[in-house]
## 1
Amino acid sequence: MHAVSADRALLFRLATSSQLERIVTAVPAAQRRAWRAASRYVAGTTFGDAARTARALHEVGVGSSIDQFGELVHDASTAAAVASDYLRLAADVAALPETVWLSVDLTHLGLDIEPHRCAEYLTAIAAALPVGRRIQVGAEDCSRTDAVLACILTTAGHGQRDRLGATVQANLRRSRTDLDRLIDAGVHVRLVKGAYVEAADLSWPFGQATDIAYVQLAHRLADAGSQFALATHDGVLQEALLAGLGPRSVEQLLGVQPARLDALTARGIPTRVYIPFGDSWFRYWMRRVAESRGA
Ligand SMILES: Cc1cc2nc3c(=O)[nH]c(=O)nc-3n(C[C@H](O)[C@H](O)[C@H](O)COP(=O)(O)OP(=O)(O)OC[C@H]3O[C@@H](n4cnc5c(N)ncnc54)[C@H](O)[C@@H]3O)c2cc1C
């Protein structure tokens, strides 16, 4: 158990190492090898690739949420360009089945530099979506949770809560309080274990403590009558919660435990797959490798 945690922490540090990314992507053969491994988790580099994957999933009864890779944008003009891309995506999903949503990380929309502008972008993108679709906002590291939450609540307050989704990380000690604020605001919640390795005083250890928090948060959502999805590949958690709460949406990442998702879909459980696309796949892939340890 400790070996797995140490392994995960080390891989997580590598995942966020821009030096490693530069080294691997500078050597064409290494980049090709890395891409071959990463492509299990990534639709491709273009929206067309993601749209094809989303259509194929829809054909077999599975919804999706398309994300254009990117995070940690630190200049205003790049954030504005990303916002334009997302406005285009919001229009483009109208041509895709109604089960196709969008996902975004707010640091991709410049959260770190201009949080107010970022909230404006998110509100505009949500408003541009066809009725019945959502943009699901990713949860990033704990130092940004306040800013992400503020942005989501602002957008919900501007009449967009039905086109919005938040992500709540069970491994964070603060999540119970955050969840209550999202429940009060009527925002759809994607409940995850949490991908980031955080300080011990802010987080529960991965494993039993996080799993217990996950169960408690799921029950809290169900008791409040909220709309939410169980976004985990943990079959035991999925089955325990489905048995206790009745049919609920389950969300998984592209390329992770697809057989489980198929089995759930065949039983009539609503399912959705997160589909990322774009050039900046390296860090995402390393995070997934870190999580696949102990599989
Ligand atoms: C739809 C969706 C959206 C997410 N969004 C966010 C977000 O915004 N912020 C955030 O911090 N986290 C996010 N996550 C990631 C999440 O926090 C976890 O890090 C990740 O899902 C792994 O945890 P798990 O719940 O699947 O449970 P685990 O206990 O880690 O895994 C359960 C089982 O699935 C297997 N498994 C897990 N990952 C892999 C993999 N990559 N390859 C092969 N097998 C694997 C495990 O080995 C194990 O058997 C998201 C996850 C999903 C499904």
## 2
Amino acid sequence: MELNLLPILNCEGKRLAIDATVAVAMRDGDNFKVLAPVAVKGEVVNIGGSLELQAEGEASVALSCDRCTEEFESQIPFVIAERFKKEDAIGEDSNPDIIPLAGSVIDLAELTYDALVMALPSKILCREDCKGICANCGKNLNLGDCGCDTRPVDPRFDALDQLL
Ligand SMILES: [Zn+2]
Ligand SMILES: [Zn+2]
């Protein structure tokens, strides 16, 4: 999904609205999957020769729970905030946060992907109180108790073990 900034590239103060449906391509090793094209809305503004992009969206994503490994769907809101400047207008001592722009086209799909990765929770849980899986029999404990004896072992038995 390409966005052409040419209409505002050389016009200080000019705005370009973003109202796009972005198909996000997945990459190897991703621990999530975008289930549908993502609506991204916002704008790019030419401020003092740099192009400031502000946009937001919400993606339907399939995730797998870190605790019970069950797959589930979640809505992940994200924000894209980037600054671009024409490559030849960037001086040597320029701000490292500014992305050099070769030509006038930016890839909205790539920006959306990056923003989404940043927006994912660091701990992915299917629900706040996910009970996880039983370490003994592997049953998903959200579906009910497995009946395993998971009481902590009495430390006195440990001492006995060591004697033997
Ligand atoms: Zn879970
Ligand atoms: Zn069990």
